[in-house]
Every structure is written in C-alpha cells, then in structure tokens.
Amino acid sequence: MIVPNYGQIPVVKGDLSWLSPEVSIFLNECVQLMTPSAIRICNGSVFEAQELRDAIANEFGGEEQKMLNRLHLNITDIGFDDINVYTKDRVDAEPGKPAPQGSTNSGSSDNIENVRLSSHYMSASHFEFSKEKQFNGCMNGRTMYLVPFSMGPIGSRHAVVGIQITDDPVLVLNLRSTFRVLSSVWDHLAATTHFIRSVHSIGMPRPIIRCIVTPTPFETPVGSFIVLKHDEQQVWAHGYTFGRTPRFGKTFSIHAASWIGTKKGWLAENAAILAITNPKNETIHVCYSSLASVESLQLQPGPGWKIEVISEKTVWIHWHNGKMYALCPENDEMDDMGSPKNLSNLFTGATSEYQIQSFNPQKTKWTSDVGVPISAYIFANHRHDQYPLILEANSWEEGVCLAAGMRVSVAKPRSNSSENSIESSPRHILVECPMLRVDAINFSFAKYVNHWFEMGIGVKSSSSESSDTYEAPPPPPIFFTNLHQEIEGKLIWPGGVDNAKIFEYIFARCTNPSDLSNTTPSGIGKVPKSLELSALVNLPPLLQVNIRFWLTELNKLRIFFNLQMECCLPPQLEKVLTDLAGNL
C-alpha cells in the first residue's frame, strides 16, 4: 500500500480491493498519523481467529489462550473510562447545569445540580492536541488491524456497520465474539458512506520498555481515554484496557448508536428482552430495564407459565408495520455457548471451564431481522419508600416523563462523623438515573427525552390504506415495578416465587387492556387491585398511591428537568407534569 507523505507499507493479509474509497481515505489518514509497520485486513475467518490466538499467546506467554475466543480483564480491576464528546453543538456535550467546582457528585436530591448526564465536552483544538499527543507514532513496529463489523444481522435493514482500526489482537478477537465480523461486511461498507469509524491503540510503540501484562501491586489499572465524534460518527480510544472488558461493546451499541438512533428514528438502550408465555401457549415480548440482572429475580413461574430471557445486553427499539419492535445488535450465538463464563483474566492468567472453538457470525436466534414485537416496556425501580409495587402509566407521554426523572435508592456512603449521627441518618439516598440508564447519554438530555416522546408516535404499516381518518397505532404501555419497599427497615415484598406474579399481571394487562376489573385508577397511573400470591403479604401498602408522596415527587421532577434542560425543556414535559399534579 502506497501512502502519500509516508511511503510503502506491506499488507500482510487481506486485499486492498475490498476497501471502498471512503475506507481507503480514512485508512491513509490513520497510517500517516500512527506509522504502523504492517497492515492486516481482517475477514472474520476461522483461520484468522487461530492466528490471532497464537499472536496473543506469543505476546502474553499463555498456552491456554490459544483455545479461547474471548479474553477479558476482571472489570473490578480497572477504573472508569474517560469519555469525552466532540461535537459542533456544545449543548449535546454538556446539557443542563454542570457541577460546581469543588462539590461532590453525589447525585442526591439535595445536590441535584451535581448530576452529570453526559461526558466531558472537548473542543476542536483540544481534540487535535490530544490526538497528536496520544496517537502520533503510536503503532511504530506494530501491526495495524483493519476490522469490519456489523451491529445486527449482516445485511439487515436495521444493522449498523463500521470499521475498527487497532493494534491490539485482543480487541480484534473480542470484536469477533461481540458483534459480527465477516468478509461480506466489506460489501455493505462499500454501499454506504454512513458507517462508524473507530480507532484504537494500546499506546505501546516498539520497542516496548515496560511490562504491559501484569502491573505492579501499587499500580492500579485505569480506564481508557475515549472521544466520541458524533457529527462524523467516529470513536477514538487510547488505552490498554479498551476492548478487554465486557463493557467495550457498549461504546458502539449504546454510546455511538444512541446518536445515530436519534437521526434515524430508533432507540438504543440498556434493557433485556423477555418472552412471557401463558398456559395457553400465547407469548408476548417485553423490554425489561433494570440496574440488576434478570437472574437476580430468581423467577419461578407458575404451572404452565414460562419466562425466557431472549437478550440481556443491549436493545434497539424501532417501529415496523404499525408495531414497536426490539432486537439485540450483539452476537447471539455467544450467549448460547456460554460466552459470559468464557473469560480469561489477563492479569492472573486464570481461565474458565467453558471454551469456544469456533462460531458462525451469521447464525442468529431471531426469526426476522426486525426483531420481536414488544407489548410493554418495564422499568424496574429500586426504592425503599412509598413507590408502588406495580404502576402502569396512563399514556406513553406520562410514562416517559416519570422514567426520565427516575430516582433510585443507593447505599449512603459512610462519613467521618460520629456513630450516633450515622445511626440517626437514613441508610439510603436517592440518585437520579433517567430511564435507568447506567451509561452516560453523551448528547443533549433535552434531545434525548424529546426523542423518547417522538418514539411514542406510531408509524403506520406500509400495507395499510391511506385515509384521512387514519389513527396512528398506539405505543406499548409503560410499567414501573418496585420490589424493595420497606416499612421500619424491613422489606414488605417476599420475592422468590411471587416475583413471577408481577409478569403474569403485566401479561394480562397487555393481552386484554380493556379489562379494568383488576386495576385501580389513580392520578398517577393504574395499580392492581389484588395479586394471587403464595405467601401472606401486606398488599395495601405495596399498591397504595400516596398523594402527598407523589406531589413531592413531581416537584422533584420539575426541579430536575429545569436544571438539566433549562431553556431546551420539551413542552410535553411541562404539560404532563401539570396534568399529573392536577389529577392527583
């Protein structure tokens, strides 16, 4: 390959004819900046995977790593990634009121202005300085890997394709097992100019003068330096830990995809997709968003009922033929083969019992590339106060409003005060967690909430007849659950087998929404009248809608929205908050 202002560079594997002009131009720019010794164009073959494993084993000195398809650091060993946002509109980088200097980012209701819903804003000059400092000559003596990947089934109408440039064979191997890497992705990259351009370097140009496998006991590994260039759909990452933790896939499927979704009319969220089947073999699918895993519920459905986890990582939501559908952009077969347990900690060298020899990146459990139709969206809150056990929002707009200002209970950090003051103070504080999203939104919070409102406007089927009296299809209902309500410091809800009763009630509401015989209307939403439980439970406190509590909660929401969005506050929010307060 002949690179202007650089010279010739060997391509050890792959064919330059695979690359589209846009990919070639971006590759030329990266080669001039990073000066690698060779280029490898990947195609996702089984032989390529074995060569990558051999290269990793030779570099880190572990023979057992020649048999693994995914290698990860222990996620508790490293700190948070330093994520920065470079965009033309600064509102997309720092929405609302930033935290005052010298204050702690507690996120409690008393320090609501300290909540940061986005990453740090980076100016154009700062980005160019950081790029020159971090990436200039960072691949001296190393091989540059050029990897095509597809989020979603290859060739799907809802897939997002991209290229990854890196000098880390571990990232290439993990990318193969997280998304879909195959030679046919090059054809789809050639057919579009809108694809993700991701660049990464571990920052170890040869000759390496320090150990990169096992840090000293006094050296705590840090997260990676990541820059999201939304306007150009680029991701720049620098650091040894990027690509070696289970969270690296969310940089693409959540952080980058959320911005793309706002432009194309779909959502990218952290949620699971559950399939609920009743004794009559009728099945519905729901999106379940929670800060805890679905396994923590220990679901034990009653006779004839089944609750299956279709996906538990990332969900993309979109409209299709008059219904809202959801799909997981990550590779599905890795779940079937036990990939969460197929980890090798590069610090300790310990490996797990499950090993994967090969897999088909085109195989998928989805019967359609559009995903599955969802009948409800569930937000599993974690509150110890009077937040009800099950709450069904009256409309999509009210559900979005309540979810955008959700607050969850977290353990209060211990202070240096006396023991008496600790005992008298509450054990938990409330932290704002909009949409139960653990990852930063990384663009304007007002745009993000407004996009949720727009998703509630149904898109009609392409086969439906056009008519002046046409009514848009309704969006799925939004439910809120809370299994952690306490009285005098003791949990009321027994959990265990009764957790499945919540999903059985939601199934009944979704399949027969006109039947209100087992619901009690309130100013904030609908709650069930009764539940068939296996244990003696004091249900009235769990299902009570306390007017004073909710008026205070709505006031907190209004303060939170005004501080975070300021002049960009969507008009729907103000109307919904006023209507809810009036209903109460």
From TrEMBL:
GO molecular function terms attached to this record: GTP binding; manganese ion binding; phosphoenolpyruvate carboxykinase (GTP) activity
Sequence ranges of Polar residues compositional bias: 101-110
Location of the region described as Disordered in the Swiss-Prot/TrEMBL record: 91-110
GO biological process, alphabetically ordered: cellular response to glucose stimulus; gluconeogenesis; glycerol biosynthetic process from pyruvate; oxaloacetate metabolic process; propionate catabolic process; response to lipid; response to starvation
Enzyme class: lyase
This protein's UniProt keywords: Decarboxylase, GTP-binding, Lyase, Manganese, Metal-binding, Nucleotide-binding
Sequence ranges assigned to domain Phosphoenolpyruvate carboxykinase C-terminal P-loop in this UniProt record: 356-580
Obligatory cofactor(s): Mn(2+)
EC number: 4.1.1.32
UniProt domain Phosphoenolpyruvate carboxykinase GTP-utilising N-terminal: residue ranges: 26-258
GO cellular component labels: cytosol
Family in the record: Belongs to the phosphoenolpyruvate carboxykinase [GTP] family.
The protein, known as: phosphoenolpyruvate carboxykinase (GTP)
